């Protein structure tokens, strides 16, 4: 496995991409976003993933966003979301990320053609792994791509020196648990905050969290309780994280995360269509829910 795999552990934030309310990049806000995460104790960031609206950005915009993040990352682990619907764009983005010195890339399957032949999917990922000098995490999010990362695919790629792990965002604990057990040589991250404690407890690498954007302290608390080994603390921290998520998921998730941050002292940010920002009434209702539950907004 790649030497940098030692950094692929813990809790990482699938960080938002700063945009103004018209959907234009607002990269001058990136330092504030990263500093907010760092101050809470997050281990790293994933740039231009799902929460970062990566697939809504051009190749050039994704490069600019990653460059802005790297300028501020300091000692944080940085994983670049480089997946696209085609291999040439993915390779270009992944090679760019490697040249910047990121710790790993997170790569989606090709998500337009559904039910691709297993041989075609293996060839797709092999072309990327062969072209880059960077650890690669495969991104399993079949509810969005309709192309799952299967055991058969992982076995077909087994032993490749650049295959470092999997981010499993399907939100199905038996599947995440099975990946951890079947592929102990890979760093398996839960992409569902609801599974953070179980993933850590089962020997997974950690959690790549969307909910950490507005409330990074809630995700860090789960990690810290796990490190201390206090079962009651771990359960309580996960329950608090679940409580936060239960509120957040009732609203447009990325827009809601940016709304919360604007009320926690960060710049006001918007999203790019097809995502939507919260209406004034939605924001007021959401903030009241968080305040009633004791969250700082």
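^ structure tokens above, recovered residues below v
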């Amino acid at each position: 496995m790649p030497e940098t795999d030692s950094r692929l552990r813990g809790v990482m934030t699938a960080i938002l991409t700063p945009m103004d309310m018209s959907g234009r990049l607002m990269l001058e806000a990136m330092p504030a976003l990263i500093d907010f995460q760092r101050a809470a104790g997050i281990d790293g960031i994933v740039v231009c993933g799902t929460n970062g609206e990566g697939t809504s950005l051009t190749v050039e915009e994704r490069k600019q966003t990653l460059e802005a993040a790297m300028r501020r990352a300091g000692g944080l682990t940085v994983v670049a979301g480089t997946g696209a619907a085609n291999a040439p764009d993915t390779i270009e983005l992944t090679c760019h990320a490697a040249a910047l010195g990121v710790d790993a890339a997170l790569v989606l399957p090709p998500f337009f053609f559904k039910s691709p032949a297993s041989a075609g999917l293996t060839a797709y990922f092999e072309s990327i792994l062969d072209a880059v000098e960077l650890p690669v995490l495969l991104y399993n999010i079949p509810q969005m791509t309709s192309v799952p990362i299967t055991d058969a695919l992982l076995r077909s790629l087994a032993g490749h020196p650049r295959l470092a792990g999997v981010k499993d965002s399907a939100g199905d604990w038996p599947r995440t648990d099975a990946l951890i057990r079947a592929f102990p040589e890979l760093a398996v991250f839960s992409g569902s905050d609801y599974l953070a404690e179980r993933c850590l407890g089962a020997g997974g690498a950690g959690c790549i969290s969307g909910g950490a954007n507005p409330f990074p302290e809630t995700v860090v608390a789960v990690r810290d309780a796990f490190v201390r080994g206090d079962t009651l603390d771990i359960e309580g921290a996960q329950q608090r994280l679940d409580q936060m998520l239960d509120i957040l998921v009732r609203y447009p998730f990325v827009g809601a995360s940016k709304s919360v941050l604007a009320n926690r002292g960060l710049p006001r940010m918007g999203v790019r269509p097809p995502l939507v920002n919260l209406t004034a009434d939605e924001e007021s209702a959401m903030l009241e829910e968080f305040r009633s539950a004791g969250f700082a907004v």
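The longest helix spans residues 231-248.
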